[in-house]
Amino acid sequence: MRVGLFVTCLVDLMRPRIGFAALRLLEAAGCEVVVPGTQTCCGQPGYNSGDRASARALATKMLDEFEGFEYVVAPSGSCAGMIRTHYPDLFRDEPVTLDRIRRLCAKTYELTDFLASVARLDAVPGAFDGTVTYHDSCSGLRELGVQAQPRALLARVAGLELAEMKDSTVCCGFGGTFSVKFGDVSAAMAEKKCANIAASGADAVVLGDLGCMLNIEGRLRRGGDERTRVLHVAEVLAGSESGQ
Questions:
Q1: What gap in Å lies between CA 149 and CA 127, rounded to an integer?
Q2: Structural domain boundaries, residue 99
Q3: Minimal CA–CA distance to 185: which of 196, 172, 197, 198?
Q4: Each residue's pLDDT tens digit in the chain (244 positions)?
Q5: What single DSSP character describes residue 162?
Q6: 13, 210, 214, 228: least buried by Cβ within 10 Å?
Q7: Which of 67, 65, 75 is nearest to 16 (CA)?
């Protein structure tokens, strides 16, 4: 399978090791992976803020860069959800482009969904000595149905024990621009999420979106928790969180 890896702008700028972990996992699944060097953003920030023109421009750019691949995979339910759920809305009045967009949507996957449902990865390279709890990020869960897939893959990580937290499917308060526009509400939601993480007793909280990771980690550290690790699911599955 020839896969185009959409790294995402946030991963590229803030935590590129997630992208390398995703690459390692896709190669472990037997995929030929290509990372287009001109890729940037999926357009979600503009779309969510009402700037349809910039979102459409970025969507067109991504279409040109990725439509030639058999599959498109992103280590982000948020970005994959933007493509599959919202790109058609941007081109609803352009039948020719809309047809191309729909074909792109049909072959775009969040990383764990692709590994579990399409590539059917049987074994993962990573190992983890400890307990983790999993946070279900909103876009992946609600737009793509990603919930069982990461847990099924984590069950294959040697040494890892999963301890479910209370309200794992409740938002962490990030929501992109929501956390900026409604800071007090966002902070209160993050506080509840961090309390549930602490109550789980896990050594680390694992999730599939870097925006949520940064939000949760920031709240944990500001609250004095320097122990609990905040890890992307790709890092744990690939073993890159421990330097493997």
A1: 18
A2: 2-117
A3: 172
A4: 999 999 999 999 999 999 999 999 999 999 999 999 999 999 999 999 999 999 999 999 999 999 999 999 999 999 999 999 999 999 999 999 999 999 999 999 999 999 999 999 999 999 999 999 999 999 999 999 999 999 999 999 999 999 999 999 999 999 878 888 888 999 999 999 999 999 999 999 999 999 999 999 999 999 999 999 999 999 999 998 764 4
A5: E
A6: 13
A7: 75
Q: For the whole model, what pTM was predicted?
A: 0.95
* Helix (H) / strand (E) containing 23: helix 17-28
172/107 same-domain check: no
Are 129 and 238 in a shared domain? yes
CA distance 124 to 96: 40
Count up the domains in the chain and report the number.
Answer: 2
Lookup result for tokens 């992307």: 232
Record the tokens describing residue 31, joined without a space.
């995929």
CATH code: domain of residue 201: 3.40.50.10700
Which of 117, 133, 148 is at the close of a domain? Answer: 117
Q: How far is CA 149 from the centre of its chain?
A: 12
The pair of structure tokens assigned to 158 is 């040697």
